[in-house]
Amino acid sequence: MHGLRDSSDPRPVSLGEYPCLDEALVLLNRDLAATLPKQEPLRLMALPGWEVDGPENVYVALANGEWHGNSLYEGSAEALDGALCAVANAAQDTVMERLWRVWPLCAEHDIGMHLREADGRLSWWCAGERVRRGPAHIRAAVGELDTFVRPRRPNRKRRRC
What we know:
Blueprint: E1 11-12, H1 19-35, E2 43-47, E3 57-61, H2 80-99, E4 114-118, E5 121-126, E6 137-141
Antiparallel strand pairs: 1-2, 2-3, 4-5, 5-6
């Protein structure tokens, strides 16, 4: 039987502690920089597990250390595919809930995208513009949102700050 650990403060995860999570986070930060260029990169934070000898809980956090949602599941750090899926979901939760904005947005339809596998790669999927019945589509693989240029929309009203 394991004893329970006292709660403690979260700590930043050092580069190399979870190599697969680090690699997945690099891809997510590429998408974040392409879509929210003023936002600082995401990072990993950790809290000790509930049990003294148990695994720690790792979270995807904003640069200031805030996060939202559940910790990454224990097995997600073992392989890149699992890590990418877990980190992408956690990053999306953290960005949306801590910054109060939909992320990432489809540059074509201006609606939020979701994760979906396409051609063996985890990708950002857009449901399409529902008003005009535009087609659903894969926008880009995770980590490749910067390869697309936002289309010019001449009839769209410009926001004023």
